[in-house]
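worker-3 :: picked TBC1 domain family member 22B
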Amino acid sequence: AGGTRPKVPVIVTMATENRINFWRRKAKLPGRSIWFLIYLNLCRSSLSLCRYHKDTKTKLNNLKTKKASSFHEFAHSTSDAWDIGEEEDEESLRTEASSFHCTKQKQSALPVRPLIPLVARISDQNASGALPMTVREKSRLDKFKLLLASPSTDLEELRKHSWSGIPREVRPTTWRLLSGYLPANRGRRELVLQRKRDEYFAFIEQYYQSRTEEHHRDTYRQIHIDIPRTNPLIPLFQQPTVQEVFERILFIWAIRHPASGYVQGINDLVTPFFVVFLSEFVMEDVENFEMSALPLQTQRNIEADSFWCMSKLLDGIQDNYTFAQPGIQNKVKALEELVSRMDEDVHAHLVRCEVEYLQFAFRWMNNLLMRELPLRCTIRLWDTYQAEAEGFSHFHLFVCAAFLLEWRKQILSMSDFQGLLMLLQNLPTIHWGNEEVGLLLAEAYRLKYMFADAPSHYKR
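worker-3 :: tokens ->
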């Protein structure tokens, strides 16, 4: 008592030190303040775990005891919980609903933030609980409007502003431009839109009736089965009108791309475009909106725009869906190599527990993390993917690496195969919003900057 207080040593991990030093050295990041990012990276913290599916245990035991003899068997054995037989649909969806609505215990050290239901506020730019419109956000929105209103939009400038998120009001037009669907020349946009929309419905008239023919029957049947499993907890996607739209989009894409055809997972890739283009005409919550209330021409425009933008996306990652899915195999292998160089402890722990990267990362690559994140987070993620060069292919790899290491503490705390795989296949992101996605993207950018152009770091 009365003496001087002993000094407490401050312990900084190598990973944290590397992150801090990176942001000190790196003066520029698309759309972000460097000091803000230093603060965010110092404040990173993992979310605690929610309860897992009890009925997953049998599936996990089977995975460990039976090695797949081929990539197709392996992919089938590690298919996610929505890839189920028709007779199991109702019961499985009830299980999904029960599991998705489980609550997460917040770490006591974290500030209290409002809980966000899984299906609420899909299109809300401020889904993390921020104020509806700050002065900074108003300024950003004005910059977007100015860019979009110019006679010829500067796409590089648009990408730079879009990297850190696109305001809801201008997202539909911005996505069309960044997808390469709309021309930069403002005077030509309406003509191009009309021509492409007419072209899509010409495909419908020419090909859609062939869905019942023998050589297309299996494709259509698989699409028809998968559509109800697309975001099954969101009422919008259970409407017959919406499901018919998705069936037409997927069938036309499949028969126009015979090298791959329809593959499970492609159905997910329609939803962000559909929601964004629908939000252009709907001010209230999109997830409960009745699609048939819109004028027929508006419905047709949303459908055609969703088809073309999804097609543009798939043009860059089509090898993910061709025979044997070589794109996914290569990306999963690249992820394993990358993690082994970035964090030897996590990689060695996965190997020691006999967890193979394909068992969890196959779905991350096949569905672009859409099954791991709420839809509102996917939309925010895709803002950056469309702004980043090769965002859906190359940059996605670094996002997956950052996503895996986000759960480092939980991964290293589990020493059994079953518990570890249950964690990796059911990561607790139910309450994620813009803040978490922003942190994930900042870390992915750091990893890309450090590893993408450093082969000695990237490969063993």
